[in-house]
């Protein structure tokens, strides 16, 4: 065999690289297991034992292993396997544009920004591109002929490279570069903050073309702390504080307005704003001391258009800002401050911090001392001199940390922040200030949180499903192919070793969908071996000796294998390009699996088999029970195609009707919102809990938000979804919803369970085991990306089939078959989503499943088409119908074996792989079944009918498979 030396060399080198990459994971796991065995459940003991064991090294000759280095290099586990948090941060691009325009108040600019904000909710374009489009539109409508280089737009002192005669096209390029630089600066600041948190194996990446930053921190447990660290922009500002006597007349006017027009504001007319302010308990220079439960309604009133129009001149530009957190002796109330603003809302002091440290004041309270930069020091001196004996508020990201009275002028830029801090909160603030400020505010537009207990359960479920699937494949392939099956198993084991090693070497993260991708790669490896061995069997039945049969089997199978791998690879690439998070992880493992499957099952397997055959040893390709299975099977598929058309038409029409009548249950990644998987210590009634939560999640105007509670896996676990505060992506909104969720579920939770325990459930108590948040803008992007992914996959497959088979009829048949499969799967999901005990939402996981099904279905179709193409060259005397029947019948063995083993594998994951994968696997099960059906009865039939239409009327005689010389054509004997 040519090239066997090179293949062997590549296999050995690849094996050594993978071994070197996987050894640290093995060693780190070994040390941690020893520490756990010694310490049990005692965390302090575990740390001490781990520190002791970390001093040891393992010298293997070619490398030395020690724990700390091995821990850095071990394989990354996704948060669905390890627990933790995955967030998508979005930099506020309006802030960036405001900064570049030097906070201009030009009405054209303001209207453009407002329109761009609205556009962004339903657009996948970058913010700045929508801004440029809207600027031109507003300019045209107002007939102002304003240029981007105008001093009131971008031609200000902050952008010296823009001159009065700079063209709009040149300005656009300059602004794009500035925005990109700001995004890069934000990325560096976020990465520095995460490093200061000491998170193990964080993954921070820029999402190209979106201005977003993806952050994954497996193992993180203090979720609120993580969110706060990531969203804080470190925008430190100092504002003058307005006193209650300046604001009270406005509140009284607002009260009268609410009693007359409360409905138009969205609050009951009986609402008493002055009463909500609790003016008799004012503290800390605030204008209100509001109950935590009333903060949402106060926000709604003060931010309403009617309230803003009512403002008198002295507070026209005032900002109402909340305090950092409740005072220690008043835990149920939050202080509201009125900060004196101006037309461009630019703070009198907005300086960066040169240094910050944790300290204690004269009363022993934790404070943060800081030193401003030169500009900030100068502005601070001016402001303190102007406001002696008056209050000044210190704000960070529009939250007041402290608002003391100025005693005297502060000339050196030193100041102190107090805010009822804990030691950890103060240290986090110091870390945030030390890492530098973000160029604009940031918000979490998507978040996935998985508790450690669920992560451990996912690992166990993933490993169990993996082992069962592997054993099923091993048993079946050896049972069916005998000695050749043993070589297939050896190749598959090497394949798995390579997949894990390469994933580790490219720093890929292993996720639960990734495990599913690896298992599907094993199914593909089986498919590859099935194609080779079925062709080898055909050659043996044709009378060739064992060496020739294997040689021709590999040769004739290669074309079909390349086509099958290429179409699946195309689908995986589409998933990688359009997918996010776990779906991208699934795509990465599938891509690696496809490439390694080809290398091990085609090239390396061939080297191993011929090494045996060339020594004169035999190698069976069947067992006594399987030798003649499918051998003499010949079915008149084309003659029965009209029945198949009727069945497919009925199923398709029924699916379309169900979609129209029943609709779908869309996941929050398509609609936006939040969902929580909550575990209880006993079985609960989902319907009763849903009714209880609907009362909790009422908006300020008394309307109910959408809430759904559904059993998730076992009876003591619910998946709860809501669109309450869907447009509010702040940490405060997250905390409000978690509080309401806790209150609504209290009757079904253990009596002594605290809110903190509820928010991070562990194996010992009930509570939230995972949560997901998706903002409406991200939801629109995901939905659009999913649609593009399906279109791209179908278009790519059509072009590939056209290129490989040179006939558009084959491409048409393939795409019609794929559309048939997708519609029926959608119909089943539409019909059953209310009744199945597992997740049947239409979300990005479902899109990934559909694309995987398309990849499998086209793989199956390509095998049949490849045989048709072969027969078109070799069997000129047959009628077209006979040729199609021959082709389909001769590949039935391969079709059955591949579909059967794949279904067994998917069933193993469906049953044992955990609740999160059941919906995904159910779609795959449907897809395999209908994909097998459509490749025979739809794709092939469509291709036949359109090819026949080109050649005119056809004879009724059907041919039979010519490679099986033992079959006697009974019709010729008649």
Automatic annotation (TrEMBL):
Entry-linked InterPro entries: SecD, SecD/SecF_arch_bac, SecD/SecF_bac, SecD/SecF_CS, SecD_1st, SecD_SecF_C, SecD_SecF_C_bact, SecDF_P1_head
Gene Ontology CC entries for this record: plasma membrane
One GO biological process term: intracellular protein transmembrane transport
Entry GO MF terms: protein-transporting ATPase activity
Pfam families in UniProt: Sec_GG, SecD_1st, SecD_SecF_C, SecDF_P1_head
Stored Gene3D superfamilies: 3.30.1360.200, 3.30.70.3220, Multidrug efflux transporter AcrB transmembrane domain
Ranges where the Protein export membrane protein SecD/SecF C-terminal domain occurs: 441-608, 759-946
Keyword list, A-Z: Cell membrane, Membrane, Protein transport, Translocation, Transmembrane, Transmembrane helix, Transport
Keyword Coiled coil: no
Membrane topology per record: Multi-pass membrane protein
Transmembrane regions: 459-479, 486-503, 515-533, 554-579, 585-609, 643-661, 785-803, 810-831, 846-865, 896-914, 920-947
Domain SecDF P1 head subdomain: 352-440
Subcellular localization(s) per the UniProt record: Cell membrane
Record's keyword annotation contains Zinc: no
UniProt domain Protein translocase subunit SecDF P1: residue ranges: 186-242
NCBIfam families documented for this protein: 2A0604s01, secD, transloc_SecF
Family classification: Belongs to the SecD/SecF family. SecF subfamily.
Quaternary data: Forms a complex with SecF. Part of the essential Sec protein translocation apparatus which comprises SecA, SecYEG and auxiliary proteins SecDF. Other proteins may also be involved. Forms a complex with SecD. Part of the essential Sec protein translocation apparatus which comprises SecA, SecYEG and auxiliary proteins SecDF. Other proteins may also be involved.
Protein's job: Part of the Sec protein translocase complex. Interacts with the SecYEG preprotein conducting channel. SecDF uses the proton motive force (PMF) to complete protein translocation after the ATP-dependent function of SecA.
Name of the protein: Multifunctional fusion protein
């Amino acid at each position: 065999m040519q090239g066997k030396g090179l293949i062997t060399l590549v296999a050995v080198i690849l094996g050594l690289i993978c071994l070197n990459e996987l050894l640290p994971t093995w060693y780190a796991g070994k040390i941690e297991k020893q520490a756990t065995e010694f310490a049990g459940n005692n965390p302090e003991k575990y740390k001490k034992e781990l520190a002791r064991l970390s001093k040891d090294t393992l010298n293997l000759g070619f490398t030395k292993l020690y724990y700390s280095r091995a821990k850095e290099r071990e394989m990354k586990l996704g948060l669905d396997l390890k627990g933790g948090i995955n967030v998508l941060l979005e930099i506020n691009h309006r802030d960036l544009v405001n900064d570049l325009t030097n906070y201009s108040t030009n009405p054209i600019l303001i209207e453009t920004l407002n329109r761009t904000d609205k556009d962004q909710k339903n657009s996948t374009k970058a913010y700045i591109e929508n801004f440029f489009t809207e600027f031109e539109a507003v300019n045209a409508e107002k007939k102002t002929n304003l240029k981007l280089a105008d001093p009131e737009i971008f031609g200000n002192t902050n952008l010296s490279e823009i001159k009065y005669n700079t063209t709009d096209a040149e300005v656009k390029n300059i602004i794009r570069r500035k925005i990109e630089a700001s995004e890069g600066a934000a990325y560096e600041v976020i990465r520095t903050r995460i490093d200061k948190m000491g998170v193990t194996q964080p993954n921070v990446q820029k999402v190209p073309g979106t201005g977003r930053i993806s952050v994954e921190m497996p193992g993180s447990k203090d979720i609120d702390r993580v969110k706060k660290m990531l969203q804080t922009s470190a925008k430190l500002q100092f504002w003058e504080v307005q006193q209650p006597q300046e604001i009270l007349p406005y509140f009284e006017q607002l009260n009268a307005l609410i009693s007359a027009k409360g409905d138009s504001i969205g609050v009951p007319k009986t609402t008493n704003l002055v009463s909500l302010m609790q003016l008799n308990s004012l503290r800390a220079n605030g204008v209100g001391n509001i109950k935590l439960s009333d903060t949402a309604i106060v926000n709604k009133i003060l931010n309403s258009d009617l309230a803003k129009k009512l403002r008198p001149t002295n507070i026209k530009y005032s900002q109402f800002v909340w305090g950092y957190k409740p005072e220690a002796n008043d835990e149920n109330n939050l202080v509201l401050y009125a900060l004196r603003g101006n037309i461009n809302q630019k703070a009198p002091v907005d300086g960066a911090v040169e240094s910050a440290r944790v300290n204690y004041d004269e009363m022993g309270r934790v404070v943060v001392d800081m030193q401003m930069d030169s500009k900030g020091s100068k502005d601070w001196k001016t402001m303190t001199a102007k406001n002696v004996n008056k209050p000044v508020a210190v704000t960070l990201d529009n939250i007041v940390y402290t608002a003391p009275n100025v005693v005297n002028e502060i000339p050196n830029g030193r100041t102190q922040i107090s805010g009822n801090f804990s030691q950890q909160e103060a240290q986090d603030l110091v870390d945030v200030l030390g890492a530098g400020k973000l160029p604009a505010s940031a918000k979490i537009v998507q978040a996935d949180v998985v508790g450690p207990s669920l992560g451990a359960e996912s690992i166990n479920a993933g490993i169990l499903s993996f082992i069962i699937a592997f054993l099923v494949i091993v048993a079946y392939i050896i049972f069916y192919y005998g000695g050749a099956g043993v070589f297939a198993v050896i190749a598959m084991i090497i394949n798995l070793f390579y997949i894990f090693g390469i994933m580790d070497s490219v720093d890929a993260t292993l996720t639960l969908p990734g495990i599913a991708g690896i298992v599907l790669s094993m199914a593909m490896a089986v498919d590859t071996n099935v194609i080779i061995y079925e062709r080898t069997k055909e050659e043996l039945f044709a009378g060739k000796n064992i060496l020739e049969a294997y040689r021709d089997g590999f040769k004739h199978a290669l074309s079909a294998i390349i086509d099958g791998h290429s179409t699946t690879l195309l689908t995986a690439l589409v998933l990688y390009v359009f997918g996010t998070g776990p779906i991208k992880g699934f795509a990465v493992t599938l891509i690696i699996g496809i490439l390694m499957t080809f290398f091990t099952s085609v090239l390396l397997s061939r080297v191993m088999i011929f090494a045996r055959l060339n020594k004169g040893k035999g190698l069976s390709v069947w067992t006594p029970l399987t030798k003649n299975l499918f051998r003499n099977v010949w079915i008149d598929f084309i003659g029965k195609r009209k029945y198949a058309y009727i069945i497919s038409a009925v199923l398709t029409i029924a699916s379309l009707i169900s979609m129209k009548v029943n609709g779908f249950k869309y996941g929050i990644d398509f609609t936006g919102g939040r969902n929580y998987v909550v575990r209880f210590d006993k079985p609960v009634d989902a319907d009763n809990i849903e009714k209880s939560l609907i009362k909790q999640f009422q908006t300020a105007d008394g309307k109910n938000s959408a809430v759904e509670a559904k059993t998730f896996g076992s009876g003591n676990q619910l998946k709860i979804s809501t669109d309450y505060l869907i447009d509010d992506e702040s940490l405060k909104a997250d905390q409000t919803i978690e509080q309401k969720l806790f209150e609504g579920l209290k009757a079904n939770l253990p009596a002594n369970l605290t809110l903190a325990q509820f928010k991070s459930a562990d194996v010992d108590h009930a509570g939230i085991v995972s949560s997901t948040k998706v903002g409406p803008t991200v939801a629109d992007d995901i939905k659009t990306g999913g649609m593009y992914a399906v279109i791209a996959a179908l278009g790519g497959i059509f072009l590939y089939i056209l290129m490989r088979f040179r006939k558009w009829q084959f491409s048409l048949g393939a795409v019609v078959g794929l559309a048939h499969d997708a519609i029926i799967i959608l119909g089943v999901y539409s019909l059953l989503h209310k009744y199945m005990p597992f997740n049947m939402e239409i979300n990005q996981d479902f899109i990934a499943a559909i694309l995987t099904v398309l990849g499998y279905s086209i793989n199956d179709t390509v095998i049949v088409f490849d045989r048709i193409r072969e027969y078109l060259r070799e069997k000129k005397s047959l009628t077209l119908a006979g040729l199609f029947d021959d082709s389909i019948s001769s590949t039935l063995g391969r079709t059955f074996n591949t579909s059967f083993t794949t279904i067994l594998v998917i069933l193993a994951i469906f049953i044992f792989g955990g609740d999160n994968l059941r919906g995904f696997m159910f779609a795959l099960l449907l897809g395999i079944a209908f994909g097998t059906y459509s490749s025979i009865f739809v794709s092939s039939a469509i291709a036949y009918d359109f090819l026949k239409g080109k050649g005119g009327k056809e004879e009724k005689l059907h041919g039979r498979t010519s490679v099986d010389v033992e079959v006697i054509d009974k019709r010729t004997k008649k």
